[in-house]
Each structure stands twice: as structure tokens, then as C-alpha cells.
Specification:
- By secondary structure, the protein is an all-alpha fold.
- The chain has one domain.
- Helix 1 runs antiparallel to helix 7.
- It is globular and about 45 Å long.
Length: about 120
Amino acid sequence: MRLEQAKYLFDIQQAARRLAQFTAGRDLQGYLDDAMLRAAVERQFEIIGDALAQWARRDAALAERITDCRRIIAFRNILIHGYAEVDDRLVWDIVQTRLAPLQAQVDDLLASFRPES
């Protein structure tokens, strides 16, 4: 993995950490009631999806080591281009069920990072 690819992973890692921080101690109703929180969460998912898309353009095989890589990128596209139709309950479900596994995968990939010569 090259340094450039590691930078995308780092961006994903940081956005995932922000998502965990923003949503800690919150529940679905609190999420639905807080427009600023929803906007912040969506923005972090956009960053994750964009960084993953950029990484996949450079090394698709390596990016595919992230489970649901293509679905994450598609989710980012929905948030950006289909913003009027975003299902807030789905976004919250992704925070609750998919964020921790993504964080673990990215942390593992970054921990194994060794710059190529």
C-alpha cells in the first residue's frame, strides 16, 4: 500500500471516529430531532464514501478489502445526489450496525501499513 492510499484510509478512520463521537449517547429519536446532528453525520458518511471511491480508483483490489466497499460508495452518492430522499432511520441503522465493523477494518489496514519502496 502506498502512502497516498494510506491517506485515504486515514480520512476514513477520522470520519468514522467523528461519527462515533457525534452519536455517542444518542438514540434514534434524538437523531431525528437534531437537524445539525443529522447534517454532521451525513457529512462524515460523504467523506468516508468519497475517500473510499478515490482509493478504489487507484487500487480497486485493495479497496475491496473493505466489506461492502461498493455499497458504501453508493450510499455516499445517495447522500449527495439524493439528499431530498435520505431515509434518516436507515442512516441511523448504519451508524448503529455498520460503523464499528468499518472502523475495525480500517484500523487493521492502517496498522499493517508499510510504505512501498
